[in-house]
Amino acid sequence: MLSVKGLSKKYANSDRYSAKNVSFTVNNGEVVGLVGSNGAGKSTIIKSIIGVLPFQEGKIEIDGFDIVKQGEQAKRHIGYVPDDHSVYEKLTGREYINYMGSLYGATKGQKQYATDVLAKKFNIDYALDMQIANYSHGMKQKICILGAIVHNPSLWILDEPMVGLDPQTMALLVKFIKDYARGNKSVVFSSHSLETVQKACDVVIFIKHGEVVKIIDLRKKAVDLEKIFMQVNEVDDV
User: Fold this and answer.
1) Buried-most residue among 54, 139, 211, 216 (CB within 10 A)?
2) CB 144 within 8 A of CB 99
3) Per-domain residue ranges for the chain?
4) What is the mean pLDDT of each run of 10 residues along the chain (238 residues)?
5) How many Cβ atoms are within 10 Å of 67's Cβ, its own excluded?
6) Which fold is adopted by the domain 1-77+154-238?
């Protein structure tokens, strides 16, 4: 479970908050999407949650662990897929998965499941013993995804996970995200693809100028996310 309460973040030499009084909860079994235009503050919120960015105000807890006061314990419960699919390109895919597993304390069985089962599911098993530097953009994204969940984290965070993926893999990932959450896990992801958000998410959080401006539970009613997005991001009156 993820709890974000009153998160506020202002970068040095800036008069503007990149995240301002942000509060929301992601319960086990839920997929929550963060939606907003470029520069809305989605990545700032995500990087604050995973402990990469310090923040001035608020509190973030992952499974009851405070990301500031109990950072090491909290981070062991997180799996993170960045928007730039950062990976160690000199390693093979198998080496990368095993390395990430070791960092997070994954068991031998969890590592083997990732290389034997998940790699096959994502159609990258044939390339596990190739150096990642030789991977395509989409393959790097896939191996990054596997490295993020090798330890079966209770909170899985993905920042623009569909970038570089073909339609078939995108559909596979949407289903996998939903199934993963059903295993009593929490999933948060940001995306500019409203169609993907509609298909994958239980709850959608709209972010504008670093603030939460609307939260919609898709389980309760059918909505037109594109229409709401356009309403939320109308040009401010001059």
Assistant:
1) 139
2) no
3) 1-77+154-238, 84-153
4) 95 88 96 93 94 94 96 95 87 97 95 97 96 94 95 95 85 94 95 90 95 94 89 66
5) 22
6) Rossmann fold (3.40.50)
